[in-house]
Amino acid sequence: MTDSENEKIKQQYREALERKNHQHANPTAAPAGDSKIHHTHGPADHKREFRRKSG
């Protein structure tokens, strides 16, 4: 391959990557500081107990 062919292929890859990145960018997404998790439970009432099976 010649240098001009290599440059043409590189340019095509850059354009495809740019299209891909713009496609995945979601302008309606929540702002950076907002989380989907709003209400978490408090501390558990008791500690979980694990027992071995004896049979």
Describe this structure in words.
This is DUF5302 domain-containing protein. It comes from Rhodococcus daqingensis. It holds the Pfam family DUF5302. Residues 1-55 are annotated as: Disordered. The protein is built from one helix and no strands. It has one helix spanning 3-24. The N and C termini lie far apart (71 Å).
**How would the global form be characterised?**
elongated
Radius of gyration: 26 Å
Structural class: mainly alpha
Number of strands: 0
Average pLDDT reading: 78
Please estimate the helix content: 40-55%
Region (Disordered): 1-55
Protein name: DUF5302 domain-containing protein
InterPro entries: DUF5302 (IPR035172)
Biased composition (Basic and acidic residues): 1-20
How are the secondary structure elements laid out?
Layout: H1 3-24
Biased composition (Basic and acidic residues): 1-20
Organism: Rhodococcus daqingensis
Protein name: DUF5302 domain-containing protein
Give short descriptive properties of this protein.
55 residues, mainly alpha, 1 helix
Quick overview of this protein structure:
With 55 residues, the protein is mostly helical. It is built from one helix and no strands.
